């Protein structure tokens, strides 16, 4: 070992003191390799710091593992499902790879996919069938569609489904929109009429004799009440008019002129003939139901009033129900056609009598 400096002996044992050994070369393998003592000390110190850092990381990792183990042990596993249970009985419905909801698989017995809305399980664990939920009054299906992909062009829609407790009031087919039963349900109702109907062919109206019971024939042998009805309609005025809603929307100068009858005129003409207009389907009147939001008197968890939708029949200031009258034009026109035929036949008979003189 080579020393750079020598210092005098100062202690009683004549041992060297304050020696600078940093430049000394030492060998850890019997002289095969050598390294300065200062570098060896630095390496040892660095290794000590690294060991301390690794020890701290390991300690934190162990703490994290302990926390995770505690969290897992405290989990209520009844609230979680395995992905293997997806789309299986008593399982879960998941989203596909694009984040889209996929309807449940159809039943094996009939291949029908059921989405149970407005129902509730008979028992709490869903192992038995469903029963109607008395709190369900309507089913609202809400969705949004963007018709051209540009921001701000989304349109939101809500489909409302209701039932008569036996059959749904409407159904969608592959090529049609129809009620489940023949003659079941209406398209629109009093107070909820459609504005326009665009079709390529004339309406196809049931007219088979097997579904009708003929009560009279409107010819020259028609009975007294039929003749009264024909005469009554024959004298009803045809009028031009503008719809009040169109005037409100477009202004009176831009609202278009329509031609037709006034239902109250038809009603009065029938009454003046001594007949009851409610006996004839050409004239109808219905109360237009109105939807209102009313306070139930209860409050939610935030103290806000709980409202519910109710249907009410509108009434005037006297408390009388307000009705809206309508006409079945095809029946009115058929009766007028019969009245005109009768008038023409009468004129032809009179003309023949005059010519025979």
UniProtKB/TrEMBL annotation:
Domain Peptidase S74, residue spans: 207-357
A Pfam family matched in the record: Peptidase_S74
InterPro entries in alphabetical order: S74_ICA, WH-like_DNA-bd_sf
Name this protein carries in UniProt: Peptidase S74 domain-containing protein
Natural source organism: Commensalibacter melissae
């Amino acid at each position: 070992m080579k020393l750079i400096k020598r210092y005098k002996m100062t202690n009683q044992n004549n041992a060297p003191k304050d020696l600078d050994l940093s430049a000394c070369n030492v060998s850890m393998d019997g002289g095969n390799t050598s390294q300065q003592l200062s570098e060896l000390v630095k390496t040892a110190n660095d290794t000590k710091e690294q060991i301390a850092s690794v020890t701290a990381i390991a300690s934190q990792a162990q703490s994290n593992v302990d926390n995770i183990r505690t969290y897992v042990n405290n989990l209520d596993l009844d609230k979680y499902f395995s992905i293997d249970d997806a789309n299986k009985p008593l399982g879960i419905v998941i989203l596909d790879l694009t984040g889209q909801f996929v309807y449940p698989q159809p039943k094996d017995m009939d291949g029908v996919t059921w989405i149970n809305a407005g129902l509730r399980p008979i028992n709490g664990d869903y192992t038995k069938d469903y029963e109607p939920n008395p709190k369900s009054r309507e089913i609202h299906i809400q969705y949004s569609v963007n018709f051209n992909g540009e921001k701000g062009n989304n349109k939101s829609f809500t489909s409302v489904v209701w039932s008569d407790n036996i059959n749904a009031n409407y159904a969608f087919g592959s090529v049609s929109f129809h009620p489940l039963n023949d003659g079941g349900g209406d398209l629109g109702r009093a107070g909820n009429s459609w504005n326009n109907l665009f079709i390529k062919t004339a309406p196809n109206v049931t007219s088979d004799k097997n579904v009708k019971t003929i009560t009279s024939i409107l010819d020259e042998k028609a009975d007294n009440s039929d003749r009264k009805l024909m005469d009554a309609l024959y004298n009803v005025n045809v009028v031009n008019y503008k719809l009040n809603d169109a005037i409100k929307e477009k202004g009176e100068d831009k609202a278009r002129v329509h031609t037709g009858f006034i239902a109250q005129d038809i009603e009065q003409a029938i009454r003046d003939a001594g007949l009851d207009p409610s006996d004839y389907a050409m004239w109808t009147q219905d109360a237009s139901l109105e939807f209102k939001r009313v306070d139930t008197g209860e409050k939610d968890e935030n103290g806000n009033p709980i409202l519910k939708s109710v249907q009410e029949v509108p009434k005037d200031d006297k408390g009388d129900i307000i009705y809206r009258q309508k006409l079945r034009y095809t029946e009115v026109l058929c009766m007028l056609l019969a009245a005109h035929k009768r008038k023409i036949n009468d004129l032809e008979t009179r003309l023949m009598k005059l010519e025979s003189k």
